[in-house]
Amino acid sequence: MARAATTSDVFNAIAEPQRREILVLLRAGERPVTELARELGTTQPGASKHLRVLREVGLVRDRKAGKLRLYGLDARGLRPVHEWTGEFERFWNESFDRLDAYVQDLKQTRHED
Amino acid sequence: MARAATTSDVFNAIAEPQRREILVLLRAGERPVTELARELGTTQPGASKHLRVLREVGLVRDRKAGKLRLYGLDARGLRPVHEWTGEFERFWNESFDRLDAYVQDLKQTRHED
DNA sequence: CCCTCCTATGCTCATATCGGCATGCGTCAA
DNA sequence: TTGACGCATGCCGATATGAGCATAGGAGGG
Fold this sequence. Notes:
113 residues; alpha+beta; 6 helices; disordered C terminus
């Protein structure tokens, strides 16, 4: 088995730096593929592929505008990520030195086997 | 080139479901590898490898406790992710139908070439 | 209709990844 | 010392990935 498919998983989709950059760029508004490619400093096919991944996980939408195909941000999919990391917020400043009760229980349980 | 190394990048580290699960489990407290492996329903080497990745990006710390090696959460590394996604918060409920000024400018610029 | 531009795909290559298995090393107990 | 246990690592295999390149398809202009 190899890595899980990048598609159909927002966490994986935003694991790619260029894809994150695309999302950031799109905050400033819709853009055609060629524009994005130029701003990313990559090729058009390269940009298209990343956009495809982002589209499949629902982070961007596209609409045709004449000859152009405009990609726009749909940030709703980022919300679960924000919330997931938010669950750890209270651990950010916590003391790391506290001894954990779980471990104590574990040891005790083992001795009872 | 293939995908960027998963190590040294928190976004990549948490792109793996099992690694996310490990972090969640560790919220309840430190645990030895074997325990984690059991709770994840995977093998000990499997757990060790994921823990290694998490350790390399600084999301977990380990300390020896006799025969055991206890892994603990260090959630500070998740903060950047939380903040990055937070930058999109105002787009979550935004109307997607607004026509973007950038595109207008773009078209105009092209006509001027 | 023909040409041009924009974009999506297909293909290949080099590589990173995850899982399974075996194994090596260190620690503790008897 | 010997044995049992906990854990990290190495190796292999199957596969997904990202980049580069060529190209097909679609739309608009002349």
